[in-house]
Amino acid sequence: MLKPLLEEFLKVEGVSAAVVVGRDGFVIESAVSGKVDIEALGAMASTGLGTSEAMGNTLGKGELSQMLVELEKGPIILSPLSADELIAIVADTTSNVGRIRYELKKNKERIVAAL
What we know:
This protein is of the alpha+beta class. Helices cover about 40% and strands about 30% of the residues. It is built from 3 helices and 5 strands, in the order H-E-E-H-E-E-E-H. A 5-stranded antiparallel beta sheet has the order 2-1-5-4-3, with helices on both faces. A hairpin with a 4-residue loop joins strand 1 (about 15-20) and strand 2 (about 25-30). The protein is globular.
């Protein structure tokens, strides 16, 4: 049930991967088009999100809802799904970040329910 939900992100222009990762960095499920090292992505996404959550807590800024990493060749969007899982969406420079964020917000509860 989870894989078809992740595959929906691949229909958004520029998206090359949607990956659900455990907080331990291990990939739970993925949908990928093209060449993406999902194992490395999982490990780094877990670490990056955890560090950003700690920063928000330390600074008294509250819970992290989403993290956007803007890179030369496209964005990576990270978002916690639960206490144990997160999602990472990898895109290229042709993508519309707003559309990706909208799709994530629209489908987040369905993804969590499928875990």
